Amino acid sequence: MHFLDQAKIYVRSGAGGPGAVSFRREKYIQYGGPDGGNGGKGGDIIFEAVAGLNTLIDFRYAQHFKAQRGIPGSGRDRTGAGGSDLIIEVPVGTQVLADDDERSLLIDMTREGQKVTFLRGGDGGRGNASYKSSTNRTPRQHGPGHPYEECYVWLRLKLLADAGLVGLPNAGKSTFINAVTNSKAKVGDYAFTTLKPQLGVVSHKGREFVLADIPGLIDGASEGVGVGDRFLGHIERCAILIHLIDATGDNPVSAWKIVTKELEQYGADLDKKPQILVLNKGDLLGQELMDDVAQQLRDAGASDIISISGATGDNIGAVLDKVLESLPSLSSVEGSKSEPSPIGTSKSISQSASDEELEQWSPI
User: Which CATH code, of 3.40.50.970, 2.160.20.10, 3.30.420.10, 3.40.50.300, is assigned to 163-330?
Assistant: First the structure.
């Protein structure tokens, strides 16, 4: 499945159906009077966060969403049927943004089952029966029905994870996530083997949490160099970051400073999140050289340094212990499991579940 985390779509609610102009005609009834019914209400545009989706790829092929308009009223005081609501299913973690320069946030779909009425359908028009009065016995006017609402919006997916992996290309992030989860991230001896975010569920000491791996960052990533800057949004929701450094690199201190600078320039307070600095590939250097590299980092101002080997799994447990210290009492996985599920349904292991709610919202 192709990964897509941004999409622009057009949405339009349904217009209200027009009211009817009708008069009662029955044998032996000389003055039947008006009996035109009201029009039906137009359908709403509703966003729903559902489990089982982790990409917006469907919105590359379907970009226009229009709800059904209300059915016109008819004679004998019959009100037209309301138009069907259009429910747009999106992955948990999807944000709906305004189509403007600022791309201001309109909706944040953070809970499985969350429903938000984004555009309300137009109310139906009044039939001529509703205009009858003592001075207007045969009204011929009717309501045309309220118009629809429409707009373009951007959808942006920010995956929900408890911890995130960052670092330069070839720092060993894919090897690390493969070692602690059942993920099968691509591993290679060249840069940018990871081209899209990877998620995995870590089980450690009776706790479970979601770990995210994003493509490697390089110098200038915050200005669009490389591919990692585009995916930094997927770690904005993380409680803690695991910063991996290749201890065998030419300048581990410079690698640490480059990634730190890019996190700071990206914004969204990524540089203020708790970080665990992890020196990787200890199996290639040995303990003495790893201690020397760690000391160089401490002299440069780094802290919370742990030396590991992702390939052999050496000391990875110490990293996971540190992660658990920064997690809330319930991670996204544990929160999902703690909520009761209706019989016959399943809950996503990577998103927190909640009772279905319907919020009213209209940006127009």
Answer: 3.40.50.300
